[in-house]
Amino acid sequence: MPKNRDNLKKIVETLILCGQQEIGLMGHRDSGRLTLEAPESNDGNFRTLCRFRAKCGVTGFKEHILSSGGRSMYISLVIQNQLISIIGSQIQRKILERVQVTKYFKRVGHASDALENIRNNAEKEFQQIFTKTVKLAEELNIEIRLPRRVGTQKHGENYQAENAEQYYRVIPIIEDLIRSLEERFLGQKEIIKSLDTLIPVNTKTSEFKHLLPAIEKYSDDLNTNNESMLRTEFELWQMKCASFEKQIRTAVEALQECTEDMFPNINKLLVMLAVLPVILETISNGHKIDPEK
């Protein structure tokens, strides 16, 4: 009913407000019917805000609070968790629609190339800097020397060097940064490029061979490893994409047109492409993620 949807919308808006302002929801007693009178025990920010909206005369919401039964009030802990889960899914979907993964990988590649160039010129550049530093140190009667090395280093690399100039050179820092970029992002570059051939705007200029790296990577997740069947499915998907009036540029939009019944393997590969931004962000924050979940 429109009335119920309108009241549910107000409850969802209250949950979103709490999330945006980083306000906790729970209280000491946050179950049971919601009344317009403040309880003796704190019943949480969410119920307090709902009570406030009702007392302020928000259209229809006061009547909803006063007349609804326990379950149809839509503010129980179970319903709160369900709504939060739905809100989270919608936020994630919006993020994935906006993220064009491949262009960011190109930028990471450019950054890596720039760092490699710095690495190659580091010795010459640093020698000039170090010479000036030594001269200044001599004027101040300061000796630049190697720090004392210990058998076991806990808070940094036990970097070995023949002299102070080699030790303080920035090469180890740059090499570590290059390695981090390659491990975190560039290792997925070829897979992203391969999966990107399934985006409808790209299928016209794509060939089946371009998809092979992704097929090999996710072979355990596909319904078949028969190359002939996969090629046929890919060609059917190309034909379907050619009929689209609207240009589809994201994996999320493509999934809406790619049914699992008609394109079981293409559908799975598009899912992989859609969730890759989330996986990479989770990995970059140092957490593990299970693609099956």
From TrEMBL:
Family matches, as Gene3D superfamilies: IpaD-like
Protein name in the entry: Uncharacterized protein
Species of the source: Psylliodes chrysocephalus
Source organism phylogeny: Eukaryota, Metazoa, Ecdysozoa, Arthropoda, Hexapoda
